[in-house]
Write a structure and sequence with these properties.
The structure is a homodimer. Helix content of chain A is about 30%, strand content about 20%. Chain A is of the alpha/beta class. In chain A, β8, α9 and β9 form a beta-alpha-beta unit. At the A-B interface, α4, α5 and α14 of A face α1 and α15 of B.
Chain lengths: ~400, ~400
């Protein structure tokens, strides 16, 4: 059985086309009242509508019907990876989320500070949700932990949460969580689930011993538990699959991290969409593919703030002229999932998607919205096929079979 | 690779939502003349149309394009099981169809009475299609067969057909048919196809010996053949997959049996749709999920009786107000397959389906019919995904990945 990745790997060719994928995080929505308009349908989006009129539309299903994805599987799908096949471990995702770029020899672990009583039993699994500022100081102390033959990286996340990264040759990522999920008992020992992870478990044990010596006098955070051990996920790169030199222009570390997992270069240091457009322009000649991430259509949805999501959608719309001025060969505008303000959370609803190129077989849609996209030329499709469509529209795929 | 059932098992959460799945058996149809209306489109269905206007529609493909399913795979699909992966053996389906509730230690077998000549060769493979009433009397005699360490259950089906069920620890279901598929030769011996079924074959042999002693003087039904040996299919339950306490309200044994195979409770003893609605109401507080089965849209289609199928569809429509009066969170109306009167048989045509909830992303459909559903928000989808959509719309699935 030939799989889609084999097709990409075998059929891709190079040319001087440019592909832009603009992702409005959580772009899809719902009306507040049945029969009403969604956030995207309410927003005034003349630039997107103009592109829709020339392009083709559809609805992208992030995973499968009914499944609401987190940011990890949501973006992997858009990048052309089956999100049910390529799984990013919790530790790897947490590390990625704070901007740690995972290397092939890394094992990342999510850690929690906890409070231990005089007998070494856990009295609070989250160390009283210690304030981030306090936690940060303790995490810095832990950077003193040295383990022979291993580079140890410790970084704060938020409150009682931090990340530990072990960097050394041949470390497996299959180690059991040490959080016993209850109080009144001590943290568990890290136990390897396969031979390749034996050394990782040993290293984790040493880390815990040395860390506890350092923090033993902390009033709240005098212990720690470890969860979600994970090696860097084995994901074939954009270069390998598509032959694309790809760049990511994002503001938040999580999305930079996800892009770097598939081999994109992280470019610029933009703080907003205008600056992202500037980075795009400055780097236009250096890359074949640009992933541009816009966070606020998701965060406003999560807040349940319909009106602000509408405004943020209009902000996204305003980026289109700067993109089109560069004369891209293929433009895709989509989302990694829906985040309806009505639900205040990621949802399973398929995401409005537009694809523009000179050969996209334009459909009858003239407005970018959930109901119009339902009638579009791309139909309803699994997100993992979008990159194949992008490649085809860019003239970057040769035919399959003779 | 994570499969859809893994997702259901891992992501489901519990809440106090109520899901109703109303199945019009064989609901989909065809016009009698090209360009005409189908049975459903001809029927006056104001209640279904009202629900369609608020909900979202689509076409459910029972298995894969072109495949017309029997009741077994048709319902397994609706219940969220890939009908190509979860197979119900013929014996298990026959037993289920007459209301025998299969247990984990059971092996069910379809049996035929046959006529044997003086040499023990089959002269009639169906015992002259002996009348059901006569057959029933002989089957009752067979209930006298005792086998050490095994509970033997014998039940009539129709004409020359009956079911035997062996109940004992550790019986495999892989035993070859004993029907030689020709006359002039004796029935074959039951032969095990794997080690685990050795004892089953031995038990079957003993059963045949003892049964033949009892029926040896019958004029027609003096012998028997055995086919479709099958253990209870290993199907994860609704409780395990979805965390749902589920009930089935059906009139016919086959559908009660199919529902019990996936762990639904069979409730009430309704003889018609009005009584089914009464059972629903009485049990509303006791369950999370209700499967309601309506047979007559299928049987009238099988009869080729277009007009009566239209009337029966209108009867189905009339049940909607009683359901909506209970204020369900999610309502699904669909069929396990199409049964167009034009074809007088089950068909492969996708089945009109509506889903109503407060967050279903309503589409433009206002009439329940094959052509309108083609434009609906659910698109054309494989039936096995319908339960995931039901769960999502009920707020019973957490997100996948972080």
């Amino acid at each position: 059985m030939v799989d889609y990745h084999d097709l990409m790997r075998d059929l891709h060719v190079k040319n001087d086309s440019k592909i832009v994928m603009l992702v409005g995080d959580g772009l899809g929505g719902l009306p507040l009242q049945p029969g009403g308009k969604t956030e995207l349908e309410t927003a005034n989006t003349p630039n997107l509508d103009g592109l829709v009129a020339k392009g083709t539309c559809g609805l992208s299903m992030p995973v499968l019907p009914g499944i609401a994805p987190g940011s990890g599987p949501g973006h992997l799908g858009l990048f052309g990876y089956d999100p049910l096949k390529f799984l990013i471990g919790r530790g790897a995702l947490e590390a990625t989320g704070i901007g740690l770029e995972l290397q092939a020899n890394d094992v990342a672990v999510r850690c929690n500070f906890c409070t231990l009583d005089a007998n070494g039993n856990i009295s609070d699994r989250r160390a009283g949700r210690i304030a981030s500022d306090d936690s940060k100081v303790i995490v810095e102390k832990l950077q003193a932990v040295k383990i022979d033959g291993v580079e140890v990286i410790v970084k704060p996340v938020k409150e009682h949460r931090f990340v530990v990264l072990f960097r050394a040759e041949g470390l497996g990522g299959k180690v059991r969580d040490t959080d016993p999920q209850q109080t009144g008992v001590p943290p568990l020992d890290p136990v390897a689930e396969d031979a390749a992870s034996q050394r990782t478990a040993e290293i984790a044990k040493q880390f815990v011993l040395k860390a506890r010596e350092i923090i033993k006098d902390e009033p709240k955070a005098n212990g720690l538990t470890m969860r979600g051990f994970s090696a860097k996920p084995a994901i074939p790169s954009y270069q390998e699959l598509y032959g694309l030199k790809a760049a990511a222009i994002a503001v938040y570390p999580m999305y930079k991290g996800l892009a770097s997992l598939v081999g994109m270069d992280i470019i610029g240091d933009a703080a907003d969409l205008d600056q992202q457009m500037e980075v795009l322009k400055q780097n236009w000649d250096k890359y074949d593919f640009f992933f541009i991430h816009f966070k606020y259509t998701d965060s406003t949805g999560e807040d349940g703030d319909f009106d602000t999501k509408v405004k943020r959608t209009e902000e996204l719309d305003s980026a289109i002229p700067a993109i089109m001025a560069l004369d891209p060969s293929v433009v895709i505008v989509t989302g990694d999932h829906s985040t309806p303000a009505y639900l205040k959370s990621h949802s399973w609803h398929p995401v409005p998607t537009l694809l523009y190129s000179d050969c996209c077989r334009s459909d009858a849609c003239t407005i970018f919205g959930e109901s119009t996209c339902l009638q579009g030329g791309l139909g309803q499709f699994e997100a993992k096929y979008l990159m194949g469509l992008a490649m085809a529209n860019a003239g970057r795929l040769s035919k399959f079979g003779a």
